[in-house]
Amino acid sequence: MSKFPSDFLWGGATAANQCEGAYAEGGRGLSNVDLIPSGENRFAVASGQMHPQSLTDACYPSRKAIDMYHHYQEDIALFAEMGFKTYRFSICWSRIFPGGDEECPNEEGLQFYENVVNECLKYGITPLVTISHFDVPLHLIETCGSWRNRKMIGFYLNLCRTLFTRLKGKVKYWLTFNEINMILHMPYMAAGLTFTEGEDKKNTCYAAAHHELIASALAVQLAHEIDPDNKVGCMLAAGNAYPYSCHPADVMESIRMDHENYFFSDVQARGYYPSYALKQIEREGIRLPVLDKDEEILRNGTVDFISFSYYNSMVASGDPKLQATAKGNIFASIENPYLESSEWGWQIDPLGLRITLNSLYDRYQKPLFIVENGLGAVDRLENGAVEDDYRIDYLREHIQAMKDAVLLDGVNLLGYTTWGCIDLVSASSGEMKKRYGFVYVDADEQCEGTLKRYRKKSFDWYKQVIASNGEIL
Ligand code: BGP
To answer: Which of 97, 106, 167, 257 could bond to 27 as cystine, CB 3.0-4.6 Å?
Structure first.
């Protein structure tokens, strides 16, 4: 094969909580993400160190975001103009089940997502739906403590059944949980977990993760039952850990760091907890709330493909004196002297994408899907134009690395969706000025502005990449 397959899914990705806005419209209930402020307290709230309701006077830009709730037709038309083959978006759980525990869905919310799907199909765009992208109804957090409680599995499956049934024949590609490994780092943002004084946070996070893994496995089975054509994937925040040197202690530490990430995808792809995870659980005294039937559930609910986000690689050292000073997608790491960094300090490593693709494919031998990759940068709108050559350079190099992985290494890759194909609110910082899009949105840090959409220079560039099926970069 010397070319990308003709059905390769080029496209872009967004998440409800970062673009939809309209947080109190259409019968929508409140979500964890509505209570994560921008500014200095964001990390403390998202990571569960500060209770979200203890804040007064905070700013919550994502409640308004870029108002995609009202602009989705215009936005999808722009994606179609670029030639998108797929559009990845997520479901706001509390739009469909405002409290999370209702038996019947809120029709207005469900219809909204069906409209989004119909709009995609109108242009021949294949929808790729993330069922849960950092999204938990607030009512479930308050009444049952979110994912620490096994009852969440039933509520989540109710959402899945509703979606699989209503969108049957229209949506084929599903992701169960965005960046499932983020639960260990951002437990409130990723899974709605808050903690009481003295609580064993680690234990709670792993217990919640177990419930998500069971929910994911049951969702896979349900999706296949409702429509055998459904393809369900897991989603992890990926990026290999490189040994700082060839010192064996550094190599061993890189394996340990990689294990931390693979922990979840290993379960979802293989159907059982890997041996290193079982040993870690035992060593650290973690009490997983495993029921007898869980083994079988995991075994029968393995995913059809592995999707992941890739922003950066990491560096591992066995020397505890080396400080993790480089930033990245949540995970801090030792700085890699061979790499440059983005304005937000995330190290840029295109070859790392090829390395990650190879590692994941070697490990699982299942189709892969890159569902997030991109450069967050400050853009300047001048005379209606944005000259974002830096973004084009970043994407060109990453796409070249992806091409090498597919064409030279034989990795089976379903598609590539860039992150934030239209500017949206940043997950880690809550900023609007950290932009990833091909489409510029006129909105300030409070998400105030005309919300007018502008095509950036990268818009035409990506259009040409897709039209040439990756030949012209
Ligand atoms: C991932 C999330 C996305 C997204 C992206 C970029 O972790 O899945 O929601 O936002 O990272 O990160 P940020 O917005 O922090 O720049």
So the answer is: 106
